[in-house]
Amino acid sequence: MLIHRFKSKIHRVKVTQADLNYEGSITIDADLVDAANMMEGERVQIVNNNNGERFETYIILGQRGSGVICLNGAAARKVQVGDLIIIMSYTWMEADEARKFRPTVVFPDENNRLSSVMN
Fold first, then answer.
1. d(CA 58, CA 44)
2. How many whole angstroms separate alpha carbon 26 and alpha carbon 61?
3. Is 2 exposed, middle or buried, given 0-12, 13-18 or 19+ CB atoms closer than 10 A?
4. Whether residue 58 lies in the annotated active site
5. Is CATH 2.40.40.20 what the domain over 2-92 is classified as, yes or no?
């Protein structure tokens, strides 16, 4: 049996840009993506702490060390620059593996730079 399990998250990161005219996705500083055990093209759920919006999109890698968090396309309507969001990913795994699995949680600082990682 497969279980759909929480895999990783970037917790309370600040939106730096919103680009309505882009074709879609979220651009994330590559340092944060790597630290969170995520990858380019991966499906993610976004939760906006400021307005309660929840939606899904996919990751585009942003410049390393830039702190960029940019919602693109239609998702740009669900955020304002400065909003705090949580970016989460999930995976499928066997039930035995799921019981032992520890997700990765990234805590960025106020400039969206890596502060600490828990797993």
1. 6
2. 8
3. exposed
4. yes
5. yes
CA-to-CA distance for 40 and 54, rounded, in angstroms? 20
**CA separation, residue 103 to residues 11, 47, 88, 115 (Å):** 12, 17, 10, 17
Q: What is the pLDDT of residues 39-69, one digit of tens each?
A: 999 999 999 999 999 999 999 999 999 999 9
Task: Produce one character per residue of 26-39: b if its CB has 16 or more CB atoms within 10 Å, e if not.
Answer: bbbbbbbbebbbbe
Q: Of the residues 8, 22, 25, 116, which is catalytic?
A: 25
User: pLDDT exceeding 90 applies to what percent of the chain?
Assistant: 94
What's the mean per-residue pLDDT of the chain? 96
pLDDT digits (tens, 9 = 90+) for 11-31: 999 999 999 998 779 999 999
Name the residue ranges covered by the structural domains of the chain: 2-92
Among the options 8, 22, 58, 90, which is catalytic?
A: 58
